[in-house]
Amino acid sequence: MNKLLFRISLALVAFACALGLLTILVISLSNQVRHQHYWSDLVTPPMRFLAESQALLTNNRLNSLSVVAQQQSQFDTVTLARFNLGQVVLDTEDGLFKARTKLGDGLLLELESDISGRSFYELYLWLVKLSLGDETNDTSHSIQTQLGIQFRVSETFADMESQWLLESIADKGQYLAISENEIKAYLQAPGGEIYKVDFPLPYQSTSWLTIALLVVLAFIALLSLVYLLIQNFDRKLRGVENVVSRIARGELDARVKSSGSENALDRLSTAFNSMADQIQRLMLIQKEMIHAVSHELRTPVARIRFGVQMIEDSPSQDALQAQVKGIDGDIQELDELIDEILTYARLEQGGLIFAFQEANVEDIVHQVVGEQSGDKPDLNIRAEFTEESKLWADADVEARYIHRSIQNLVGNATRYASGNVLVSCSFNQETCRVDIEDDGPGIPEDQWESVFTPFARLDDSRTRSSGGYGLGLSIVRRILYWHGGQAFLGRSERLGGAKFSLVWPRKQQEADIEV
Predict the structure, then answer these.
(1) 224: DSSP letter
(2) What residues contact 95, with CB distance under 8 A and at least 6 apart?
(3) What's the mean pLDDT in 367-380?
(4) How far apart are CA 436 and CA 492, in angstroms?
């Protein structure tokens, strides 16, 4: 859960950073376009007006406005083409604004201003003053029409704001103040009237429209990200749902496809596939067990039925006792078979039947060897331990089942040994290993794996006449499986017969150990 939370948080942080960088880039590009567009819209009308009314240039009182010769090499092809179309070209050079338009005969009208655009506003004021001095009012009407600005007489003192403003107008003939929020412009007409000129609002780098658009785009991007995440989760969950439905219909080999990553759904897919494998294996084992059990039960049941029939026809008491003894042996065989089947079934159910406790494996081995030596006094059954084994003999095991697994293998070895059975043990800090060897005929290598199959029997050298039901080795392997180890078969180099080996970790996980 912590990894998933970390990844989601990391993805959101990465998304926020990417969105922030994109926002900064969009605002920067937008501001560049808006900045150029604002000043271009501001300076184009008066420049075009002067280009069309060149006679006004003779009365020019602006130091920032000049007529220069057009130098072809100074401009690129696009700029020259714009000049030829009569457009106003606005450039930023050395921190200054320069607005240029073509006058004709290789001349350009050039207006230079600082970054605040003061010269642009002063050009408007100059043209307005010219129009106010035109008695015919033709220039005034033309300027108001083409420049698109309004100017009106300030009729009240409150409109003039301060005495200092009046003094500035009286001294310079005009007043121009540029701030971030507004442009204040006043000028005095030749007749003494004071006019207020209304300019468009100054350029604002922050546009509410742009911010609103970015917020909407960010919201859409976030919704898209959430949608993609939900779609991915939904698609994978639908895959799991589809496989569950297929398994419910009996398709036990159906599995969920996993990408192999470490996210929650892929871990769920892996766990589900593991569960499906276990279910399929248990179903197969159940099917094989039912078939094998029905086969194994026929023989003793048939012998019991035959014995009962013989009891009815027994000619003497001795014959009757013999039949009763045979029936009792068959019942004992059935009881042992049922015990083996129930043990194997419990082991197949899972590790919940195990309660791991620390026990001395060396003592368990000695106990098994002592029991088997008492049952087979004609065989040499002995145990060997490496030098360091006594130091690491204590291990986390289910003592009863480890005893049974070693007992099954030693008992199995005594059935086929000619005279010697060796139980060699090697324990270290990490693992426990027990090898059971005999000097019997051994087992062919191509059958080493099949001997652990439930109810499996090999050739005539290991048949029912030797005892057993074919479940002993399967039980051993399952016991070692739930101990986190393995049981495998090989050939004994010391005695020449079969060699069964048990290997498991000396310490189990803490959650599996009963305290």
Answers:
(1) H
(2) 114, 115
(3) 89
(4) 9
Classified as helix, coil or strand, 270 is helix
Specify the pLDDT at position 27: 77
Contacts of 323 by beta carbon, 8 Å cutoff, 6+ apart: 307, 310, 311, 314
Q: What are phi and psi of 336, to 5 degrees?
A: -65, -40
Name residues whose C-beta falls within 8 Å of residue 152's C-beta, 6 or more positions apart in sequence.
Answer: 195, 196, 198
pLDDT in the model for residue 207: 66
Alpha helices by DSSP H, listed for 162-207, are 163-172
In the block, tokens 């005999």 appear at: 438
H-run or E-run covering 143 = helix 138-147
Q: Residue 452 corresponds to which tokens in the numbers above?
A: 């652990």
Question: What is the DSSP code string of 307-369?
Answer: HHHHHHT--SHHHHHHHHHHHHHHHHHHHHHHHHHHHHHHHHH-GGG--BEEEEHHHHHHHHH
From 185, 190, 213, 175, select the one nearest 129 (Cα to Cα): 190
- Residue 3: CB atoms within 10 A of its CB come to 11
CB 427 within 8 A of CB 393: yes
Do 468 and 412 meet the contact criterion of CB atoms below 8 Å apart?
yes
Q: Are 413 and 438 in contact (CB under 8 A)?
A: yes
In the numeric block, which tokens belong to residue 65? Answer: 């406005």
Q: Which of the pair, 456 or 91, is modelled with greater confidence? A: 91
**CA pair distance 47, 38, nearest whole angstrom:** 15
* Residue in 423, 418, 412, 434 with CA at minimum distance from that of residue 379: 418
Task: Return the amino acid letter for 416.
Answer: Y
Q: Reduced to 3 states, what is the DSSP secondary structure of residue 117?
A: coil
- 352-512, CATH topology level: Heat Shock Protein 90 (3.30.565)
3-state secondary structure of 439: coil
Nearest by Cα to 76 from 91, 95, 94, 96? 91
Residue 97: strand, helix, or coil: strand
Contact 139, 131 (CB under 8 A): yes
What 3-state DSSP class applies to 167?
helix
- Whether 505 contacts 444, CB under 8 Å: no
The answer to whether 429 and 395 are in contact (CB under 8 A) is no
What's the gap between Cα 124 and its chain centre?
63
Q: Which architecture, in CATH terms, is 260-349?
A: Orthogonal Bundle (1.10)
The single-letter DSSP state of residue 513 is B
Share of the chain above pLDDT 90, in %: 8
